[in-house]
Design brief:
Bound molecules: BIS(adenosine)-5'-pentaphosphate
Shape: globular
Distance between the termini: 43 Å
Structural class: alpha/beta
Largest sheet: 5 strands, parallel
Radius of gyration: 18 Å
Order of helices and strands: EHEHHHEHEHHEH
């Protein structure tokens, strides 16, 4: 498997990454070579936490202060859903069940978005990824090593309350009581395994405080990285 390249990789150049339909995942395959992102100059920050933990809220503040490029896998998937493709119908069903979308789809969307912004980005905020252990491994293989992981910690009760509070105005199909329960279950089933992979890069933040108190902790993590 390792040495057998997919058909497109036999061509001298492939036009669009990632474009390999056979997914050989060989390190020689151009579709699976790492994105050219120098993380010493452009840090990569994974922003993790349960549904409603405040990832999006804190990302807005991080963008305002640090000018990082924000990529939310939830937003990327919702944009794909809006495209109305055959794949979009399947994605809608998965997201309405509160389950995880297959990783090849998420990683393809993420890698494509990062490559498109690699030149001008000062750093990347990857919001809502990885959500399972294999996603983290695949990201670092296909793109680049993560610089730091910010994890927003809050109880299921707090998360549920916030999402139900947001439901009236969000217009999101997954902000309803039944789907929130399923989203929480998916999160709880996977989260500890994800975090356990990165003991040295992981920074936990108590997310049951005010937005500004939380952001003070976020800055204490990011200031030394951008200095
Ligand atoms: P996604 O869109 O990422 O949703 P989520 O993880 O469930 O998180 P949310 O966006 O709902 O919440 P948030 O943490 O950003 O909180 P927010 O700041 O909005 O993913 C949706 C779906 O896409 C998934 O279920 C899955 O199907 C799929 N998907 C996404 N990524 C995937 C992946 N990597 N692999 C596979 N599938 C994937 O805040 C929430 C509310 O709380 C707001 O009203 C806000 O005002 C309020 N709030 C925020 N902070 C505070 C605070 N400190 N105090 C009080 N209220 C607060």
């Amino acid at each position: 498997m390792e040495d057998k390249l997919c058909h497109p990789c036999e061509q001298p150049k492939i036009d669009k990454l990632p474009g390999c339909p056979l997914q050989c995942r060989s390190p020689k395959c151009k579709a699976y070579q790492r994105a050219p992102i120098d993380t010493s100059k452009k840090p990569i920050v994974w922003v993790l936490g349960g549904p409603g933990s405040g990832k999006g809220t804190q990302c807005e503040k991080i963008i305002a202060k640090y000018g990082f490029t924000h990529l939310s896998t939830g937003d990327l998937l919702r944009a794909e859903v809006k495209s109305g493709s055959e794949r979009a119908k399947c994605l809608t069903a998965i997201m309405e069940r509160g389950e995880l979308v297959p990783n090849e789809i998420v990683l393809d969307l993420l890698k494509e978005a990062m490559l498109a912004r690699a030149e001008e980005a000062k750093g990347f905020l990857i919001d809502g990824y990885p959500r399972e252990k294999s996603q983290g491994i695949a990201f670092e293989q296909a793109i680049a090593p993560v610089t730091v992981i910010i994890y927003f910690e809050a109880s299921s009760e707090t998360l549920t309350k916030r999402l139900l509070g947001r439901a009236a105005s969000s217009g999101r199909a997954d902000d309803n009581e039944d789907t929130i329960k399923l989203r929480l279950k998916t999160f709880i089933d996977n989260n500890e395994l994800v975090l356990a992979q990165y003991p040295e890069k992981l920074r936990r933040i108590n997310a049951e405080r005010s937005v500004d108190e939380i952001f003070a902790d976020v800055q204490a993590i990011l200031d030394p990285i951008v200095a």
